[in-house]
Amino acid sequence: MHTVWVRLNAVVFFGLTVLLGLSCMAALSKVGHTLRQRPVVKKLEMRKFRSLKSHGGVDRALLSFDLDVDLTPAFHWNIKQLFVYVVAIYETNGRYNQVVLWDKIVEAGDSKVLKEKNTFIKYPLVDKRGGELRGKEVTLQLQWDHMPITGLLHMDKQPLDTSSKFFLPTEYQ
Amino acid sequence: MDYEGQKLAELIFYIIILTFGCIGWVIGYFQEDFTVVFQAWLAGVVLSVILCVPDWPFYNRHPIKWLESVPDRRQHAKSS
Questions:
Q1: Which of A16, A164, B28, B57 could disulfide-link B36, Cβ–Cβ 3.0 to 4.6 Å?
Q2: What is this model's ipTM?
Q3: Within a domain: residue B49?
Q4: Is the CB of residue A18 less than 8 Å away from at least one CB of chain B?
């Protein structure tokens, strides 16, 4: 503490240590928040089916969907943003595939109510392993990542018993 | 800065940063806004830098009492 530089160093790094403590306390203050406050997906369903074709041996489906969800309960003072995505789930040989069709980043300052009407998917529903999509039953589920200001990322999703399903056609169209 | 001054400076910035940080945290908790905490913390750090880093006069109220200077031995040896 005998020179200006030593004192400046001491003040700044003590300050940063205190900030670290405050950030950790903020993260701890919100442990268990997700268990008590969960967003409810009011609607997530396919609106219009566009096509199901085979491209070079790989099945690909295109469609548009409706989404209505209020994500406000998922936010608290330690959340920076949510990464929200629509997942198509279908089964192949007893195992489940999940394909992301659409995503959106919702920051803490943005509108937290998502109302998508007849929105076209961003990424095609593709079976990358060259598997069959014809005739499959597809479930649409909303999932989201909580990206905190301080702490670990964790995921939550719409309960499957509230998810909508639809069938892909049995022939390419 | 003398030794008492250095002790005082350290005490001052410990108290300022911790107080601003804690009060800011409590306000932020009820406002549900972490930026409040950050701004209070930043205000505390800036105030501490202003008060504790420069060599203000009030940090020099207990100047170190040095001993009388010992006469130069070479000169002393020459004269005796």
A1: B28
A2: 0.84
A3: yes
A4: yes
Do residues A46 and A164 touch, judged by C-beta distance below 8 A? yes
Question: In this structure, are residues A82 and A154 in contact, taking their beta carbons and an 8 Å threshold?
Answer: no
Amino acid at A101: L
How would CATH label the architecture of A32-167? Answer: Sandwich (2.60)
> Residues 6 or more apart from A42 whose CB is under 8 A from it?
A68, A69, A70
CA–CA distance, A123 with B18 (Å, rounded to integer):
49
Burial class (CB in 10 A: 0-12, 13-18, 19+), B49: middle
Residues 62-121 in A contacting B (C-alpha not used; CB under 8 Å): 76-78
Cβ neighbours of residue A4 closer than 8 Å, sequence gap 6 or more: B53, B54, B55
- Residue B49: its chain A contacts at CB < 8 A? 8, 11-12
Q: pLDDT tens across A152-170, in order? A: 999 999 999 999 999 999 9
Check if the beta carbon of residue A23 is closer than 8 Å to that of residue A150: yes
User: What is the domain extent for residue B14?
Assistant: 1-57
Candidates A136, A138, A120; CA nearest to A171 is A136
Average pLDDT of span B17-27: 96
Find where tokens 């060599």 sit. Answer: B55
